[in-house]
Amino acid sequence: MTHDNHQPREKLCTLAEAIERFVPDGASVAMGLQLESMIPFAAGHEIIRQRKRDLTLVGPISDILFDQLIGAGCARKIVAAWVGNVMMGSAYNFRRALEEGIPHPVEMVDHTNFTVALALHAAALGVPFLPTYTAIGSDLFARNEGLVEFEAPYTRETMTAVRAIAPDVAILQAQRADTEGNAHVWGNLGAAPDAARAARSVIVVAEEIVSSKVIASDPNRTVIPGFLVSAVVEAPFGAHPSPVQGYYNRDNNYYREYHRGTKTRQDFEAWLDHWVLGVGDRQGYLDLLGAERADSLKVRKHAYAARTDFGH
Amino acid sequence: MPDYTLSELMVAAAAREIHDGDVVFVGMRLPLIAFVVAKSTHAPNAVGVFENGVLRHTPARELIFTMSDGPNITGALSCLTMLECMALLQQGRVSLGFLGAAEVDRYGNLNSTEVRGPSGNHIRLPGSGGACDIAALARRFVVLLDHQKDRLPERVHYITSPGYGPWRSSGRLKQGGPSAVITSKAVMRFDGLDTTGGEAHLYSYHPGVTVEDILANTGWTLRVSPDAHETPVPTNKELRVIRRYDPEHFWTR
Question: How far apart are CA A117 and CA A123, in angstroms?
């Protein structure tokens, strides 16, 4: 496994530039690593607008983002534990692709949340696999070559070997980052820290770009060290409709509307034209969303952490 | 007419599966509210584990629709990674996990990956998520589902999450297995592995539901425990907690 350590000097760029440069056709892309929060929807929509093709989508669960990429024809393979709409149930493009090959057939590699986390952790550790007891007794082995039963050394017991997954690129949301990509993330972390270390390149999409002094003031919160990062993008509301702790809440109605509005292929195409293809960029999306709706999602009940003394 | 909904009865039944001091892999939907009820009544020392990385010793202050919603983070005991929560599970430190499924069979195996439609077509479901991990690794797990014959087959079409079978009797899975299935008609529990290989039996029937109705709507010949009784109705206190938490009945319709 080789890592490209020759990063460009200037990492701060637009979302369009970051996707253009680091998400080539055929790439494996890890997204949605924090489960239902901080999902990189802005980045996903840019992937759709740039008509990327034959991607492998990697993540533990996907709360409608993978469904949108599948429906838009960007994905050839899904490596995940769960694909749907968490509050509403099934996601229709995922079903159409697997059941009917619409818009084209997609290969599904079924994992569990734990095996996805272990696969990324293995790559982050630089080892080819990790052992676990999960999946024993399940039918997951039949359709996932990355899960194999083996006899463990020392104890001679049967365990599951989970093969490492090193995505070509991980797209990670952060609350704030500096221009080098050093990123503060707080709240539930999911598999984001391992994805940042497992991937060959990392795109950080931050709610705001702050000075390096702000980041350095709280190193325990620097979940993504900048030297692993290839591109940094400032995209306020970039995770909408998913929540970003301290910035905005989940737009539950958006998930309801998506469920109701994408039941047929025709309905989904209209949804896609409206929310993604019909807007030039994320600002266009936010204009469509409207200031009033965005404002209604903003954090009302602030809950600040205690001051922390990093002095010596 | 009883003054509670079926969902409220199932939430109360699920809450009673939580013992004080349990470390609970909570999940979403009805079990989420069961955790709130248990914490507010008989299990104040239960700890909630969420696979996104969140540990909580108090329920979220507001209704949440996913485990990563803002109120589930504010005031959390700890915000960790998914692997750290799964580690608790694999170590045997999680006493109880809740699961839903499209199908549950005679031995408590679950399918949430793929089912057959009326014309034999395949219907793709969202998949395991953390369900397989919870079934394989929690010290016990409880399933909630609608009681329909085609959702309770003799054998599931696909084992997403393992119940009882050779993988447990051989010791390859060291802990756990299903301890209860709470349906919209009944509560089932399981025999020991050493007697019937861990087969489900009827433990209690919900008020207004006959044993015949349950047997007719189960896909195998369900044995009825000699001690089978009516499922206790939710108490006023349980109902107060449920309705305070989910006033618009989003999860407890």
Answer: 10
The answer to whether residue B59 neighbours chain A at the CB level (below 8 Å) is no
Cα–Cα separations (whole angstroms), residue B28 to A30, A39, A135, B10, B201: 24, 19, 21, 14, 26
CATH number at residue A184: 3.40.1080.10
B88: contact with A, CB 8 A cutoff: no
Residue A302 placed within a domain: no
Residue A30 in any domain: the answer is: yes
Q: What angle do CA B57, B61, B63 make, to 5 degrees?
A: 115
Q: Is the alpha carbon torsion for B51, B55, B57, B59 positive or negative?
A: negative
Count of structural domains, chain A:
2
Reported pTM:
0.96
Q: Judge whether B51 counts as a catalytic residue.
A: yes
Please tell me whether residue A74 adopts helix, strand or coil conformation: coil
> Which single residue is written with the structure tokens 């969902």?
B7
Q: What is the pLDDT of residues A105-118, one digit of tens each?
A: 999 999 999 999 99
Per residue in B76-113, pLDDT tens? 999 999 999 999 999 999 999 999 999 999 999 999 99
Query: What range does the domain containing A144 cover?
Result: 129-163
**A25 and A61 co-located in one domain:** yes
- Two structure tokens written together for B208: 């207004």
Distance CA(A134)–CA(B96), nearest Å, equals 16
Low-confidence residues of chain B: pLDDT under 50? none
B68 lies within 8 A of chain A by CB? yes
Chain A contact set for B100 (CB, 8 A)? none
pLDDT digits (tens, 9 = 90+) for A289-298: 999 999 999 9
Whether residue A209 lies inside any domain: the answer is yes
A41 with A135, same domain: the answer is no
| List of chain A residues with pLDDT < 70 | 1-9
Answer yes or no: do A219 and A272 share one domain.
Answer: yes
Q: Are A276 and A68 in contact (CB under 8 A)?
A: yes
Domain range B6-245, CATH architecture: 3-Layer(aba) Sandwich (3.40)
Q: Residue A213 in 3-state DSSP?
A: helix
Q: How far is A302 from chain B (nearest CA, A)?
A: 9
Q: Enumerate the domain spans of chain B.
A: 6-245
**Would residue A56 count as lying in a domain?**
yes
